[in-house]
Design goal:
It is built from eight helices and six strands. By secondary structure, it is an alpha+beta fold. The protein has two domains: about 1-100, Winged helix-like DNA-binding domain superfamily/Winged helix DNA-binding domain (Arc Repressor Mutant, subunit A), CATH 1.10.10.10; about 105-190, Alpha-Beta Plaits, CATH 3.30.70.240. The strands form two sheets. It has a four-stranded antiparallel β-sheet with strand order 4-5-3-6, with helices on one face. α1 (about 1-30) crosses α5. The radius of gyration is 22 Å and the shape is elongated. About 15% of the residues are buried.
Amino acid sequence: MKKQKWKKIKIKRTRSTLKRKALLLLQAGFALGLTPSPRAHGYVLRELAKEWKEINDEYLKRIIQEFRYEKLVSWYEKPDGTVKIVLSKKGKRRALEYKIHEMKIKKPNKWDRKWRVVMFDIPEGKRSARDALRNKLRKLGFEELQKSIFVYPFPCQNEIDFIIEFFEIRNCVRYAEVTNITDEKDLKLCFDLK
């Protein structure tokens, strides 16, 4: 009995991983061909990215059908029999969710002696966005100075811009780069900086 439960969990993880991969590939603009015409199908398969080839063809068709049902993609059939699949607004949003969960900040070899400070004042009406921002900053390795002020030593403005756009809190968040913070010795210890 326990072995069967484990297998189901493993299958679900693999399935969700493949669905995530398919959605991200669509979001990146990779071609996907589902066509009844063997000639067109052969052409599309030759043109596909390596990533698509890792997914079983029948399984991929099922995933795309699920995406259609969930309104994550739009489906256009061309006169030559090929099918064009485009992410809907909802699909693009879902793809962004996957990207935000996988986000990491690259650390340069040498610290430029600047602190990156993220400050926010998010109203109670957007409490879930505020909590999500706080949690994401912690996961990325930011140090919390106060409830709404976080600091990080490496360049991360693009990542912060992406996060605040994703949570739709642009007007509530400020980003700053500063060269001096009082009592920064504690922060240097936290980030293992010299």
